[in-house]
Amino acid sequence: MPRRSNLFRPALAAVAALLTGFGTLAMAQSAPDTDFGTVALLPGWQADNGIETIAVAFDLNPGWKTYWRAPGATGIPPRFDWTGSENIAAVEVVWPTPDVFETFGEQTIGYGGQVILPIRIRPRDTGAPVRVRLALDYGVCEEICIPAFETFTAELPAARGGAAQPAIVAALKSAPRSGQAQGLTGAACGLDRSGDRFELTTDLTFDRALPPDAITVVESPDADLWIGTSRSDVAGGRISGSARMEYYGDGGFLLERDRLRLTVLGSGFAADIRGCTAGG
Known about the structure:
This protein is mainly beta and about 280 residues long. About 5% of the residues lie in helices and about 50% in strands. It folds into two domains: about 10-175, Thiol:disulfide interchange protein DsbD, N-terminal domain (Immunoglobulin-like); about 175-280, Immunoglobulin-like (Sandwich). Strands 4, 5, 7, 8, 10 and 11 form a six-stranded antiparallel β-sheet that branches. The longest helix has 9 residues, at about 10-20. The protein is globular, with a radius of gyration of 20 Å.
């Protein structure tokens, strides 16, 4: 059974309304039904500054789940490939606060039921249409875990405008809040070495008590750097952790603490922290 975050999630009725409305929305696409459910590309809107917002929606059958961007040792993180798209300068996937599960005795992080992943697209030219080609690799799991793949295409006309869709807005709002907004007062990271093994330590403090079940997840943008599941300990407003770290690149490496991303997840609490100082 998952441990629920208890943070606000998109109302199921609002999600269902969007899914039901696919037939009347020109750019919305839904992949064929599968044993685990459906995946769809939702239409969104264009803001006055030209930023496009669309979304990928998962509607999973009971018992199935999919994964967050850092799912743990046994999870399969979604991969978004925009090759072949036109008039795209930058893309940001916004991740709603996930749940923490136990899968085959291992901690995994992801979503069950219905979840929307909002996507913000910044066009190179706001006066020209955006042509989207998305190849999505992802994983789903019930009693077994399997990889899956979908391809979606869409054309977003220039100056299309449109009203913000409540279910996508709700998903945007359900992302973890910044560390500052959640009362972060200190974030330190240390590196311990024993032979050829490295251990990354974290020490985070907040101005409020944290839920006892809180965990820390650490991510690095370096593809050659792997950071395992953190063992976390909570005492009041402090959470300390330790995670195995392995480097697969050539030669030595420098731990760029300012580029690490730390997420604290617990019942009713989620904080997104960018960077840490030496220590821990």
